[in-house]
Design goal:
There is one protein chain. This protein is of the alpha/beta class. It has a seven-stranded mixed β-sheet with strand order 3-4-5-2-1-6-7, with helices on both faces. The two termini are 34 Å apart.
């Protein structure tokens, strides 16, 4: 089963709400998404507007594709799917943008962002970004890792141990260690932080800077916008970072993540960064073959792809509501 690639909403500089809304409509009513929904017993309404379609997809994916149920991704359940259904999931999610490995389109960016994740993915994203910079294929004025004070899972610490990274307790620690390794940095030149413990851990934040011969490098850990309920999310880190850098129409932002997360994180970044400032936003998935160092492998299952398809639907819905 083969599908044509369905483009994501673009943010090339300047705000084009009508174009973004049209792209969300094309994605949410596309053939691969319709076929996949029908494979799970649903049917996307054809006579309804985009808002109604997205509401249906939100409800449907919550029922059929939410394997986290409020937990961290590493703790999500894995569904048991027949082989034919696995093939349908693989084909559809690839066409919908969840297998992105394309290189950055531009040569120069104002900012390069590396988004936090489970520890092995953090390492891969940072080292891939370091490769882009050191190879000279991509230039950026400032390179920033965005993370949080999320406590590492036991499985994450086990993956870090063979690399000699024994002192990492939080996601931000992994980002910091990876940045120092990938960009050949020592101790940060500047640290500003507000740390909390116990039930107030989610209020913690920190910022670390390195000023060297290459681009300025930074690791930012954000506090949660709902500290009593959860740790900081990707949305929290993007908002925190955007407030500090004061983006303008002339900025070009490159986001490096893992391919499976490109659609949902791109849509959130377009909404939070591009709509407010007019800046250009491009999101790319790392190419594991281009990561210059042997790192723990990150394998994504059919359940992971369905979970992140749900994340994309939610992100598309938020973006559509923001532009309409």
């Amino acid at each position: 089963m083969r599908y044509e690639q369905v483009p994501l909403p673009a943010a090339e500089g300047g705000v084009a709400p009508a174009g973004i809304a049209a792209a969300v409509t094309r994605w949410s009513t596309s053939t691969p998404l319709r076929d996949l929904v029908e494979s799970f017993g649903g049917r996307i309404p054809r006579a309804s507007g985009t808002g109604a379609v997205l509401a249906y997809l939100d409800d449907f994916s919550a029922q059929h594709w939410d394997y986290r149920r409020g937990r961290e991704r590493i703790d999500a359940d894995e569904p048991v799917l027949a082989a034919d259904l696995v093939r349908r999931v693989t084909a559809a999610t690839a066409a919908l943008g969840l297998c992105d490995r394309r290189p950055p389109r531009r040569r120069r960016y104002t900012h390069l962002l590396m988004l936090g994740a489970v520890a092995p993915a953090c390492l891969q994203r940072v080292h891939y970004a370091g490769h882009l910079i050191s190879a000279g294929t991509t230039a950026a004025g400032v390179v920033t890792g965005l993370g949080s004070y999320r406590r590492l899972h036991e499985a994450e610490r086990a993956a870090l141990a063979p690399l000699g990274l024994h002192g990492c307790a939080y996601e931000v620690d992994v980002l910091t260690a990876a940045v120092r390794d990938a960009f050949a940095l020592g101790e940060p030149d500047k640290v500003v932080e507000e740390l909390h413990t116990g039930p107030d851990l989610n209020r913690s934040w920190s910022s670390r800077w390195w000023h060297g011969p290459g681009p300025e490098v930074r690791v930012l850990a954000s506090a949660s916008s709902a500290p009593g309920a959860r740790r900081a999310s990707t949305l929290d880190t993007l908002r925190h970072w955007a407030r500090e850098v004061a983006l303008t129409l002339y900025d070009r932002v490159l986001i490096v993540t893992s391919g499976i997360y490109v659609p949902y994180q791109h849509c959130d970044a377009v909404r939070i960064l591009a709509l407010s400032s007019g800046c250009a936003v491009e999101t790319v998935g790392l190419d594991p073959a281009a990561v210059p160092r042997t790192l723990p492998a990150v394998a994504y299952t059919p359940g992971n792809h369905l979970q992140e398809l749900r994340s994309t639907i939610c992100s598309m819905r938020r973006l559509y509501e923001a532009v309409t």
